[in-house]
Please model this.
Amino acid sequence: MRGIARVLVVDDEPLQRALLLRALAPLGLEVWVASHGQEALERLQDGMPHAVLTDLHMPFMDGLTLTRHLKALDPLLPVILLTADGEREVRLKGIEAGADDFLHRPVDLAELRLRVKGHVERRFLQEKLEDLERALLALVRAVEAKDPYTAGHGERVARYALWTAEVLGVLAHEVEDLRLGALLHDVGKIAIPDHLLRGDRPLTEEEWRIVREHPIKGDEILKPLKAHPRLRPYVRWHHERLDGSGYPDGITEVPLLVQAVAAADIYDTLTSRRTYRHPAKPEEALEVLREEADQGRLSQEVVRAFRSALLRNRVLRR
Ligand SMILES: [Fe+2]
Ligand SMILES: [Fe+2]
Model:
């Protein structure tokens, strides 16, 4: 196992603890021990473990209560409960408390090792994904720092797009791609000279040509990611329009969720403050979106859903 994986073992019986420690030894983990739930929670001051293996019946705080506390602190922390055979009721309570796994006593030590290893590896993977997301967010912030007036643009566009997708009835597996895609839609602006993004003056035609390269730049930046094929439409096509007047590819078949990002992008750009113009009111920005739909650039369905989403989330009042 790679890295310094930490596992917290909680058991009030010294003999049982010793047995568990011996069973885990071949995994080369850093093992923390506690003799009851309360002590286990105190151990967390040194950081979070990658998995918790806990006995059920202990003084001061039992395994179920500990599980509930741990899950309240971190819902994704793997908790493995050690139960005696036949404790069906307890098992059900354990599931209710949020336990991820159960091991019957007497414990099969080989099984114990495999289960713990599996949970710790999943936890590592999850931490890696969280790190990746933090890195991407830092990239988005770096883009937004180039123009003080766009701070939070990516996150707002993601929020509006998710709301709209909810109205449109999006599939569960598409939500995460949409969220990341919307967040990253302008990531290519990192490759555009700062003075063109500051938004403190109208741009010349040549300057616009350079700014309009950002969807292609973004597409290139994200290429090394495994998720690239799924994020690509949002990053590359968020300025495309159904009548072919958009850029960079001039396509006429723009996926519905990409249009949701496009609508959110237009809306947020109009309602945000720029130095050379006042921010539009929500109703005014929606009027612009309606015109886009009337002229066949965005679908009526998306613009209607966008409006419903704003109403539903009380950005707009009836
Ligand atoms: Fe853009
Ligand atoms: Fe944008």
Remarks:
- The chain has a mean pLDDT of 90.
- Strands lie at 6-10, 30-34, 51-55, 79-84, 101-105.
- The pocket of fe (ii) ion (ligand 2) is lined by residues 153, 185-186, 265 (CB under 6 Å).
- The longest strand covers residues 79-84.
